[in-house]
Design goal:
Structural class: mainly alpha
CATH architecture of one domain: Orthogonal Bundle
CATH class of one domain: Mainly Alpha
Radius of gyration: 23 Å
Largest sheet: 2 strands, antiparallel
Low-confidence stretches: 1-9
Mean pLDDT: 83
CATH superfamily of one domain: Hydantoin permease
Strand content: under 5%
Number of helices: 20
CATH topology of one domain: Hydantoin permease
Number of strands: 2
Helix content: 55-70%
Strand order of the largest sheet: 1-2
Length: 497
């Protein structure tokens, strides 16, 4: 895909499109070529990342047994699949990325609000995934050059909470990801098509090795010191399900950035089915087996697959495992946390910020969030997920209610790109006040559920659903009259505001 101009055989040219709203990357696609296999590989890379394994392993800290973690993971991913299919449809149908679809609900200018929110969240996640993958490089350095060990100790040689070796590994990962991203979406597609299956092979080999080393008889299904009663088990499993939805909240919200490339909505749904419940079943089984086996093999619970690989006796095994984790995490980081802010930030000023520039803004910003402080233990992992998810929740509520209930899937694509006050999505000075009215209280309540101790102890893990539900209900309530107008417009082929 070319990124040098605003014309090409793969995009629709919008007559009289405003340069403040339109460039090559934001234009609707005319050539949609992705299939279910591409979406399946997208999810393989997304699911089978270092961060994904560490997150899944962190659920054991809630006090759940292995089979309870397995059930919670599978139930949570079914919720993710349902929401993902809903999010995917508008972008696939109209060939536009997430920030452009936001113009329907928020207005052509107001769409920058959800775009910037999602872009900033991607900055944080980009840093987290880069850091987690860089740990694999640290393991390699220590395995093949043990003399650098003092420089891997943050207490002896460190800055801003990360050791000298850690900084080197982090920046190497940073550069490698930038190189892949810079070559465009086609290169990214090819990369994830390779990285997704590759990490599958390594994780199954790792699981087999762990079983061989421990033996089935040494397995234990109880990996936490906590003892849960019957009621506590149910509530904790529901909490774990909510955390799964929160973990994937970001990639699912902007899934339209990828579904827009698909040939049909059926291809999207098929790819999501293969990549979420079926793929996640394999992921969950491998996670539970390998994590449970760390206790008899290493004498302690280890949730980080990189650390598991690092403890192997074979230098070759460590090399293959570490390199594969690096490749896999590059794949997920680019598709989930590099491409989205690239679209989001170019949406702010399409004539001045290119797609590549938008992605690099996110990459540079990720260094300054010191991501190694956001994913350092299970408690911090869950807190980070809850805080990021509750910021995203209201956007889900508003966007889905707008498209399915208010607009009834009838949108005018050309008006996404006009600054004319007569445009359908101009609203009031380019901003839909109804969306803002719904966003603010829902966001306040969502953050309150995380930051006020008395509320956080009960509602923190569910803040994405609470905030999303509140935003959706408010937006629906203040748009009830517009719902009837949109239905009439759809039936007659007219547009309605």
């Amino acid at each position: 895909m070319s990124h040098s101009d605003n014309t090409g055989p793969d995009i629709e040219v919008i007559p009289n499109a405003s340069p403040k709203l339109y460039n090559h990357e934001l234009a609707p696609l005319k050539a949609q070529t992705w299939t279910r296999f591409n979406i399946f590989c997208y999810w393989m890379s997304d699911v089978h990342s270092v961060g994904g394994y560490i997150f899944a392993g962190s659920l054991f800290a809630l006090g759940l047994t292995s089979w309870q973690v397995l059930v919670s993971l599978l139930a949570g991913i079914m919720v993710v699949q349902l929401i993902c299919n809903l999010v995917a449809r508008p972008s696939q149908a109209h060939g536009v990325p997430y920030p452009v679809m936001c113009r329907s609900a928020f207005g052509v200018r107001g769409a920058n609000i959800p775009a910037i929110i999602r872009g900033l969240i991607a900055v944080g996640w980009y840093g987290i995934q880069t850091y987690l993958a860089s740990h694999a490089l640290v393991v390699l350095m220590l395995k093949f050059a043990p003399g650098v060990a003092p420089y891997a100790d943050v207490a002896q040689h460190g800055f801003a909470g990360l050791s000298t070796v850690g900084w080197v590994a982090f920046m190497v990962m940073w550069v490698l990801q930038a190189i892949v991203f810079w070559n465009g979406m086609d290169t990214i597609r090819k990369f994830i098509d390779f990285a997704g299956p590759a990490v599958y092979v390594v994780m199954f080999v790792l699981a087999a090795w762990m079983i061989y080393k421990s033996g089935w008889s040494a397995f234990t299904l109880k990996l936490s010191d906590k003892t849960l009663t019957g009621t506590q088990v149910v509530t904790t499993m529901i909490t774990a399900m909510a955390l799964v939805a929160g973990y994937y909240a970001g990639p699912v919200l902007n899934f339209g950035d990828f579904s827009r490339y698909c040939k049909s909505y059926d291809e999207v749904k098929a790819g999501n089915f293969l990549g979420l419940p079926l793929n996640y079943l394999a992921f969950a089984l491998v996670t539970v087996v390998t994590t449970a086996a760390t206790v008899p093999v290493f004498g302690e619970l280890i949730t980080d697959p990189v650390e598991m690989v690092g403890r192997m006796d074979s230098a070759t095994a460590v090399l293959i495992g570490a390199v594969t984790f690096v490749l896999a995490t590059i794949g997920i980081n680019i598709v989930a946390n590099f491409v989205p802010p690239a679209f989001d930030f170019t949406n702010v000023a399409p004539s001045k910020i290119s797609w590549r520039t938008g992605g690099m803004i996110a990459a540079v910003g990720s260094v300054f969030v010191t991501p190694w402080n956001l994913f350092k233990n299970p408690e911090m992992i869950h807190y980070t997920i809850d805080m990021l998810a509750c910021a995203i929740g209201p956007l889900y509520g508003i966007l889905l209610v707008d498209y399915y209930l208010v607009k009834r899937r009838a949108v005018t694509v050309a008006d996404f790109y006009t600054m004319s006050p007569q445009g359908r999505y101009w609203y009031r000075n380019g901003v839909n006040p109804k969306a803002v009215i719904a966003l603010i209280p829902a966001s306040v309540i969502g953050f309150a559920c995380n930051m006020i101790p008395s509320l956080a102890s009960i509602f923190a893990n569910f803040s994405i659903f609470i905030a999303g539900g509140i935003a959706g209900v408010i937006y629906w309530a203040i748009n009830r009259q517009a719902i009837g107008a949109a239905t009439a417009a759809y039936a007659t082929g007219r547009t309605a505001t």
